[in-house]
Amino acid sequence: MKTIALALWMIGTAGASQAATDDPLTKPMAVERAKEWLKPLPPEKVFGTSYLVGFGGLSVALIDTGAGLVLIDGALPQAAPAILANVRALGFDPKDIKYILSTEPHYDHGGGLAALARDTGATVVASARGAEGLRAGAMAADDPQLAYGGTWPGVERLRVVTDGEVLKLGRIAITAQATPGHTMGSMSWSWSACEGAICKAVVFASSLNPVTADGYRYTSAAGAPFVAGFEASQRRMDALPCDILISAHPDNAGEGRYSDKPGACRAYADRARGLLAKRLAGEKAGTVK
Length: 289
Ligand SMILES: [Zn+2]
Known about the structure:
The protein has eight helices and twelve strands. Residues 14-18 have low confidence and may be disordered. It has helices spanning 2-19, 31-37, 80-89, 107-110, 113-120, 128-136, 224-239, 264-285, and strands at 44-47, 50-52, 61-64, 69-72, 97-101, 123-126, 158-160, 166-169, 172-178, 187-195, 198-205, 244-247. Helix 7 packs antiparallel against helix 8 (264-285). By secondary structure, it is α/β, with parallel strands linked by helices. The chain binds zinc ion. Residues 104, 106, 182, 207 line the site of zinc ion.
C-alpha cells in the first residue's frame, strides 16, 4: 500500500510540473524561497483519516470526512498540481474535495487556492477579513507586510465563517479558531481525528509570528490591534485541546511535519510570545528596521 502510494506520488509529481507552465493560476511565485517551502514530500497519514499532502516548508492538510474531503491551505500557486497529485497518491479523487480552509490571506498559504478551487470545484472557507484578501489576491490595507506588495490569483467562491463556527461534513466537525495577529484575518482550525475508539484533538495553526515590512511599528496606533490580536491568539493556543499540532509553516512547530508532543500548542504560543516580546523590545530600543 505504501509502495503503491509512493509510486503514484512520483508519477503524479513528474506529470504535474510539466502541465503547469502556461496556466495563469499556477504561475510560479517567489521561485527562490519556493525551493525550500515546496520541498517535495510524499503524503503522510497523521491520525485517523487526517493526512498531510503538503511540503517540507508549507503544510497542507487533507481530511477524509466520509462524505467528502476537506483540504487546509493551498501553499503557492505553483504548488497546486503537486498537492492534487498527493491527494491522488493517497487513493482519493480531488473532485471529492468540498471545502478548502484557509489560515491567512498571504500568497504562501493562499496563492494556490484559486487553482485548487477551480480544479476540484471546492468552496474556499475563511474568516471575513481572510476572505476579503483571498478574493482580491492581495494583502489588506492594514497588513504589516503591505509594503512588500505583490498579488496572487484571487478566489471566486468563498464562504465566510466566524470565530467558533463549526463546519460539519460526514463524521468530522471542524471548528474555526480566530487567531489574529500575523494578519487580522488569520484563522486556525481544530477537529477530532479518530481511529476506532481513540480520538485525538488536532489543531492546524495559522502563523503567529510577527513579520512586517521595514518601517512598520507594532508600537504605533495602527499596530495596537495586532498586538492585542497576537495576545488573544496566544491565549487561545494555550487553552485549545491539542494532541497534534500542524502549523502552517512546519518549522514553527519544531522538528518534523507535525508535533504530537504534549503541550505542542502551548509551546507554539510560547514561541510566538517570545518573538513578539523581542520585537516590541526592539522597537522600543530603536533597533528594528
Ligand atoms: Zn503570512
